[in-house]
What does this fold into?
Amino acid sequence: FPVTIQIGSDSWTAVSAGGLFSLGLRSDGLIFAWGRNNVGQLGDGTAINKSSPVQIGSSSWSVINAGYNHSIAIRSDNLLFTWGSSQYGQLGDGTAINKSSPVQIGSSSWTAINSGNHQTLAIRSDGYLFSWGRNIYNELGDGTTVNKSSPVALAAPYDTSSWTVVAGGDAHSIAIRSDGMLFSWGRQTTYQLTLS
It folds into this structure.
């Protein structure tokens, strides 16, 4: 049966479930995390599992998302932060080093984020779609199968300022363009790309 998770009297506005951990965005803009923390995916500066929610910093956040073992969030000023595993470069800070606290990714303004198991996807405020992390099945959509530790745009002719929604799966990604068209790329095993 469901159990109540409550901290103070505030309500919650967003949640995201990772591999074996959870993120919650409270109505006051604070992020809380709990569960597995072996690679710092909770973002509290440790690698210790937490059985109850812990507050992540003191910033105000607007969007959260959890991957398999990494986390991403957009702060209220539209800056993007990541933390947790960077085994495949999925944090986007140019390294393959795990981070147990949020790290800022560049200085761009972002509007949407999502993650697959080991890749991160984000739409910049100008509508361009970027991705980074594991890419062995071209789940980043940049036309290669090379992992990327920094954001890369979709391959031409899809590197346009026209994306509105994005989501990541195990080893594939999907996105909606501003004209309502749906696109997918990455690993094809059980028709998840809808190609026969």
Q: What stands out?
A: The two ends are 40 Å apart (CA to CA). The mean pLDDT is 94. DSSP finds no helices and 15 strands in the chain. The first strand starts at residue 12 and ends at 17.
